[in-house]
Specification:
alpha/beta; single chain; eight-stranded mixed sheet; 206 residues; two-stranded parallel ribbon
């Protein structure tokens, strides 16, 4: 077991496409995708304007929306329809930063690059400080789990680099260990909350 762990660390340190936060943020600004850790599963992300690249490289069906991840709730709630802000903030202040994705209606056509099916978007502030530091530098990013659609999600930087060779990775590696569980997803529907996906967080608030 100890040798296996040592080999995993060695593999991750061999990743060459590593960039610190300012360098990775610069690449994202120019339209690059990026791989970075979160508290749940490693993420594949981009600026919303370049989100089509995520669906393409991941081979993800367009009917499956992406999540907008931010470094703080203020960065995300500026896009939320006023009718859902009060309920959404109440939930966010209980569970963020953390493994809860909150689906809320968004203003105008902001959601078009992340969700082809409606004007609602899944929003999340991750608990992992390393991820939040990147997101506070870049602003909100379109994200999804770091795996080819249908394949097992990556659990660390090495596994992510295997599935997406050449995609820039947030340094340093190895990353902090993630939970390996997807986030819980809830949706606001005219003042009521609906559970869309069970995950890391158990919701007690209605």
């Amino acid at each position: 077991m100890e040798l296996s762990v040592m080999q995993s660390v060695k593999n991750q340190k061999m990743i060459i496409d590593q960039f610190d936060i300012p360098s990775l943020a610069s690449k994202l600004t120019k339209g690059s995708l990026a791989l970075f850790p979160t508290d749940t599963l490693p993420a594949l992300g981009s600026y919303p304007d370049y989100a089509q690249k995520i669906w393409t490289i991941k081979k993800r069906p367009l009917k499956k929306p992406l999540i907008l991840m931010g470094g703080c709730l203020e960065d995300l709630f500026e896009f939320v329809e006023p009718c859902a802000v009060e309920d959404g903030l109440k939930m966010a202040k209980i569970y963020w930063p953390g493994a809860l994705t909150i689906v809320l209606p968004t203003k105008g056509n902001f959601s078009k690059n992340l969700n082809c099916n409606s004007n609602s978007l899944g929003l999340r502030v991750p608990a992992l400080k390393m991820a939040r530091d990147l997101l506070l530098k870049t602003g909100p990013l379109a994200t999804t789990s770091a795996n080819i659609s249908g394949k097992t999600p990556a659990l660390n930087s090495f596994e992510a680099s295997i599935q997406f060779p050449g995609i820039p990775i947030l340094a340093p590696v190895p990353w902090p260990k993630s939970s390996g569980l997807a986030s819980t997803v809830i949706k606001w529907d005219n003042g009521e909350w609906k559970l869309l996906r069970a995950g890391s967080v158990v919701i007690n608030e209605k």
